[in-house]
Amino acid sequence: MTTPAEQARRTDSVAALQRLLPVDLVERGGRPFDPPAGLRQRRGHGAVQPLTLANGAGAWLVTGLEEARAVLGDVRFSSDRVRHPGATRPQPAAPHAGERTDGNFVFMDPPEHTRLRRLLTGQFTVRRMRALESHISDIAVRHIEAMRAAGTEADLVPAYALPIPSLVICELLGVDYAERAEFQERTAIALNSTTPPPERARAATELYRFMGKLVAAKRAEPGDDLLSGLIRDADPPLTDAQLTDVAVVLLGAGHETTANMLGLSTFALLRNPEQLAALRADPALLDSAIEELLRFLSIIQMGVSRVATEPLTVGGVDIPAGATVVIATPEVNRDPRQWDDPDRLDLHRRRASHLAFGHGIHQCLGQQLARVEMRVGLGELFARLPRLRLAVPADQVPLRNEMLIFGVHSLPVTWA
Ligand code: HEM
């Protein structure tokens, strides 16, 4: 059985890759709504470009939409950093003879990924999502009322953007929200690309311990939550290690992502008043607004990558076996072959599928939930606080340049 520390190292491979990328490909500097400068400079240099990593290894950068789809839709591009460590080599390749014993399916290939993904999909039922929707509305309204009751100014991140998805994922997994400090802080440390690896490993290990205890509690006393459902439905049963991994993945993926989309989307709309006015005038625009914000903001910046398991060709470029391929999502989502004037936020834009949720077998499992959280979260916020605006100059809003998931650290707003 793999240990929590080994699991942590696997998860760390995303951070390891980020550290090997040139900084100007990762950090947006002071321009929160533009792709990082290095990506913008590479425009016109091809949809699949060679890239040299900090350790001297050659890699490939994919900036075109069709090419990114081709990579993510082809399972010969592996997600498994243990069997195919690629250029990042987060750990020595483990001599895996048989099936993997862990449950971190984000870093698995078929057939192991298929079984866990199918089990999880079975838990994200329409019934459960519907039940969550009214719950999400209650949470959003309650937090807006609390902000109003406390005055006329707030930092929107801790007051609104973070609690909504955190409460929802706790509800889904059956985690006691009172214990949120246990996971919010540790997830933040684990997702900070500048955290020294030993500290990150410690935070991740603690997170696994926390979740391990929860799994034991659900085994002893199952409830109506997703973890209990997995314990009940999986045949053959999942091990404690697998369940713990699944829980850690969902907890991390489920709250940091949507929280940052809520914070950054609000910032983007407040900085584009004509777009916000259009949304306020026509709330029916909300669904297409959310798709456009997902495209325009691309908060998972360079976090999606694969390793070629054999020589492969993408967009006419030959990629050797063992090469790391990095999907430059902020650029992919601005592909001029797909969108006119792609650097413009345009809520009326004709819908075209973006890659904010990825593509292929690993496409975001929580995307419908994330959409509901954004629809309710942004809808209630702008409807209930019609005078909402920034409480500080825009250039004083601290950006999450060092984090694996982009967004704002805080968003001081007022509604007086
Ligand atoms: C706006 C919010 C979100 C964004 C932008 C986002 C983005 C993504 C992306 C790009 C991937 C693909 C990773 C890859 O191909 O390597 C992914 C996978 C995943 N997401 Fe999300 N996500 C969001 C919200 C959520 C939520 C709310 C949950 C859970 C409740 C979630 C759970 C997952 C899981 C479990 C996977 C892995 C799926 C697999 O490997 O089969 N995500 N997400």
Low-confidence stretches: 90-97
CATH homologous superfamily name?
A: Cytochrome P450
* Overall form: globular
* Total of DSSP H or I helical runs spanning 4+ residues: 16
Label this structure with key terms.
416 residues; alpha+beta; Cytochrome p450; 5-stranded mixed beta sheet; 3-stranded antiparallel beta sheet; 10 strands; globular; binds protoporphyrin IX containing FE
In short:
This protein has 16 helices and 10 strands. It has 416 residues and is an alpha+beta fold.
Describe the fold and architecture.
Helix content is 50%, strand content 8%. It is of the alpha+beta class and 416 residues long. It has a single domain, classed as Cytochrome P450 (Cytochrome p450), CATH 1.10.630. The strands form three sheets. A five-stranded mixed β-sheet has the order 1-2-8-5-3. Strand 1 and strand 2 form a beta hairpin. Helix 6 (126-150) packs antiparallel against helix 8 (163-173), helix 6 (126-150) runs parallel beside helix 16 and helix 9 packs antiparallel against helix 10. It starts with a helix and ends with a strand. The model is unreliable at 90-97 (pLDDT under 50). The structure holds protoporphyrin IX containing FE. Residues 79, 105-106, 117, 169, 249-250, 253-254, 257-258, 261, 299-300, 304, 356-358, 362, 364-366, 369-370 line the site of protoporphyrin IX containing FE (HEM).
